[in-house]
């Protein structure tokens, strides 16, 4: 899988899907030579053109060789200051104030498997599933080293990269920038695709031409954020969901990040990604190390869907861990939009009765069960049950749910603290704060300083004590504001530039301790919905609440964008009440259900107030989801139509089971149109020679609050060969209602 040719200096990482080639030149410099479809052997059919470029200086050792300049070489992990004027991958300030360094190749090592990263989430693999190349670079002064790590997986179109900085000298240095990866492309014929948004409007797709000069997106919020996602793709113009070259980059990181691209004067492209260097300053004392987060690099010749499926597979098989990695996720009901803070045991038990009757599997008690929490003004940090609301405590409501055949779950927000809390009164120094300046508030709350070991210990003990006190099966871990006044009273002045990074490292330390102590619990991460939806969190918690916005129309965009990188099984998706609490829209119960089935299905409304007709429909939807759940959660996912294309009025998603025997097709049309053409859906990923029988069909339903009506069954029982479904396609019947949603289920004969 990894070879090194000493005569040419070529490192070749290869499997059946992808090749990644580096070259050591002149025994010093590491160049990027190729990344793309797998090739048998790299013999340099496209050698680098050495040209005398004006204003591109030569290193001192090559003063008279005017065709050799770092300013034009396709470098693998570039510095700045020796003649390369493009974006650097790293910047180090040494004790004498200089930021000029010169790292040359020192050694390399190739090993089976994939080592973990100290204190960080990262992809994992057995020795027969991957190989790892580590290249050690040494500064010519001899006091600093960088280790670049590359892992190629046996069955994945993925390269994992990271960098580790080591201070082997006697003086401290400041690390001002430390990218997880850098790469140079030979041209700039790309479009830049990223995921942007805001709270309740996460992960819309933006695709723009790659421009000359520098472009950047990132987060300065202390978290990966709703506003931008730690992901970038460079796509060739004309690339579609199913065709064209795509180069995708995703960080296994939950903190601030940056992706930068630069098209320079000669038309080449440099891309760099990692921790955001805005305000970043990490002091490396002698014998200390700094490890960058991991970057997952995906190449796809099969368009955006090919990239997405590669990311989905690496997340499911090499990021998510533990009991729930391959376990079917339960259908839940969350009490938040049903009761908000106004609940007691009687209300929760009524909700449990109704949930059991409808066939649901998990009852989740959201915010308001602890301290004196009757609104969002107080009690965060005081993780003690409110016995005025729950007279029998958490154990009482948990055992009550269990007695009805339901699992029981609980909401926490452990990283936050209310000013009106016993914890804050006891430890005001535990808050992120800048001396002599007032603190900013979000939702009346402040942020705990997770850089402090005593804060980490408190959270682990406080949360652990609750989890030990009752039979709890599920935890929703929330994070409802971003960082401000990111200053730690526990760190010396010269290390304050480390605070935001140390906050995330502290979070990871907490999550590792808690999730390993309670391996039977299903953890779901949340940050006001999708404000921290990243591979770093999925390493500890196998699913994420996708968005606080539960409107089905909005969710078409949110879930389509999220699926660019993350599989449906990672997405929490619930049916909520209408008019919707976020946007006031009225959609049919069926549209809300079909949309939510394309994720971890559940309900977030007062199911006890549903009509008998609505409850009957919920039972139908729940029973159907249980039949289709393995395919919907762990099958291959295809975006046939996206809300980002054309007028954005249509969306179609397809799922194919792991064994290829079951297929689920969903189609949504937001607004009805006069004189509209008949839509044909062409399926994909089928066996062209196999016959597929239609076993399930849910036609569109009007948005009227009367949920009765006949169900069309004309297609059920009909069979079609795979080639016809893929090449000729299926027609969707004429649509005369807004917010239409259809579902078809197929079984291979």
From TrEMBL:
Substrates-to-products reaction catalysed: Hydrolysis of terminal, non-reducing alpha-D-galactose residues in alpha-D-galactosides, including galactose oligosaccharides, galactomannans and galactolipids
Active site per UniProt: 478 (nucleophile), 548 (proton donor)
Domain Glycosyl hydrolase family 36 N-terminal: start-end pairs: 29-285
GO BP annotation list: carbohydrate catabolic process
GO molecular function: alpha-galactosidase activity
EC number: 3.2.1.22
Coiled coil segments of this chain: none
Domain Glycosyl hydrolase family 36 C-terminal: start-end pairs: 650-744
Gene3D superfamilies membership: Aldolase class I (3.20.20.70), alpha-galactosidase from lactobacil brevis (2.70.98.60), Golgi alpha-mannosidase II (2.60.40.1180)
Key words of the record: Glycosidase, Hydrolase
Similarity-based family: Belongs to the glycosyl hydrolase.
PANTHER family: ALPHA-GALACTOSIDASE C-RELATED, GLYCOSIDASE FAMILY 31
Protein name: Alpha-galactosidase
Naturally occurring in which organism (per UniProt): Selenomonas ruminantium
């Amino acid at each position: 899988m990894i070879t090194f040719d000493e005569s040419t200096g070529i490192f070749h990482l290869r499997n059946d899907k992808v090749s990644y080639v580096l070259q050591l030149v002149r025994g010093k410099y590491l160049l990027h030579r190729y990344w793309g479809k797998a090739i048998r052997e790299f013999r340099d059919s496209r050698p680098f053109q050495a040209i005398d470029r004006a204003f591109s200086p030569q290193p001192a050792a090559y003063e008279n060789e005017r065709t050799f300049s770092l300013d034009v070489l396709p470098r693998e992990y570039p510095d700045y200051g020796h003649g390369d004027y493009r974006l650097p991958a790293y910047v180090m300030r040494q004790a004498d104030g200089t930021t000029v360094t010169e790292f040359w190749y020192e050694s390399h090592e190739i090993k089976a498997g994939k080592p973990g990263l100290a204190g960080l989430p990262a992809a994992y693999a057995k020795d027969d599933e991957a190989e790892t190349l580590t290249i050690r670079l040494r500064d010519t002064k001899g006091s600093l080293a960088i280790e670049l790590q590359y892992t190629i997986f046996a069955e994945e179109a993925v390269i994992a990269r990271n960098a580790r900085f080591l201070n082997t000298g006697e003086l401290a240095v400041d690390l001002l920038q430390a990218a997880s990866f850098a790469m140079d492309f030979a041209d700039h014929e790309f479009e830049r695709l990223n995921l942007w948004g805001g709270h309740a409007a996460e992960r819309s797709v933006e695709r723009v031409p790659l421009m000359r000069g520098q472009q950047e997106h990132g987060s300065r919020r202390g978290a990966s954020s709703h506003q931008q996602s730690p992901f970038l793709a460079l796509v060739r113009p004309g690339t579609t969901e199913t065709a064209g070259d795509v180069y995708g980059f995703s960080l296994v990181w939950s903190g601030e990040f940056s992706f930068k691209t630069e098209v320079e004067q000669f038309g080449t492209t440099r891309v760099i990604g990692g921790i955001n260097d805005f305000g970043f300053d990490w002091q490396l004392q002698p014998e200390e190390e700094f490890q960058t987060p991991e970057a997952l690099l995906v190449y796809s010749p099969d368009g955006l869907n090919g990239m997405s499926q590669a990311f989905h597979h690496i997340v499911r098989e090499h990021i998510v861990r533990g009991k729930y990695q391959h376990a079917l996720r339960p259908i839940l009901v969350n009490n938040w939009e049903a009761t908000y803070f106004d609940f007691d045991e009687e209300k929760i038990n009524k909700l449990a009765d109704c949930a059991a009757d409808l066939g649901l599997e998990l009852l989740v008690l959201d915010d308001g069960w602890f301290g004196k929490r009757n609104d969002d003004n107080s009690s965060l940090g005081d993780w003690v049950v409110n016995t005025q609301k729950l007279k029998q405590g958490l154990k009482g409501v948990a055992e009550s749910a269990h007695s009805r055949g339901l699992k029981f779950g609980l909401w926490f927000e452990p990283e936050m603290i209310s000013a009106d809390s016993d914890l804050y009164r006891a430890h005001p120094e535990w808050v992120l704060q800048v001396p002599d300046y007032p603190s900013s508030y979000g939702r009346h709350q402040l942020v705990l300083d997770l850089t402090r070991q005593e804060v980490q210990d408190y959270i682990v003990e406080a949360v652990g004590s609750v989890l030990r006190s009752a039979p709890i099966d599920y935890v929703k871990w929330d994070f409802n504001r971003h960082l401000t006044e990111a200053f730690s009273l526990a760190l010396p002045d010269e290390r304050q530039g480390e605070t935001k990074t140390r906050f995330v490292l502290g979070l990871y330390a907490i999550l590792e301790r808690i999730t390993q102590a309670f391996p039977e619990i299903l953890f779901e991460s949340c940050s006001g919905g999708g404000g921290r939806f990243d591979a770093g969190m999925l390493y500890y918690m196998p699913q994420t609440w996708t968005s606080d916005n539960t409107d089905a129309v909005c969710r078409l965009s949110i879930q389509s964008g999220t699926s660019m990188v993350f599989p449906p099984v990672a997405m929490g998706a619930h049916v909520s009440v209408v008019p919707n609490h976020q946007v006031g829209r009225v959609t049919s119960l069926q549209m809300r259900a079909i949309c939510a089935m394309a994720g971890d299905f559940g309900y977030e409304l007062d199911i006890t107030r549903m009509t008998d007709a609505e409850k009957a429909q919920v039972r139908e939807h729940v029973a159907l989801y249980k039949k289709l759940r393995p395919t919907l959660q762990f099958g291959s996912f295809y975006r046939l139509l996206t809300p980002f294309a054309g007028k954005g009025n249509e969306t179609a998603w397809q799922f194919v089971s792991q064994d290829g025997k079951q297929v689920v097709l969903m189609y949504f049309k937001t607004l009805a149109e006069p004189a509209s053409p008949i839509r044909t859906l062409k399926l994909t990923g089928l066996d062209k020679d196999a016959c597929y029988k239609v076993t399930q069909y849910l036609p569109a339903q009007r948005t009227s609050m009367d949920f009765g009506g006949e169900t069309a069954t004309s297609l059920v029982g009909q069979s079609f060969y795979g080639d016809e479904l893929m090449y000729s396609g299926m027609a969707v019947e004429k649509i005369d209602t807004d917010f239409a949603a259809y579902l078809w289920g197929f079984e291979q004969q």
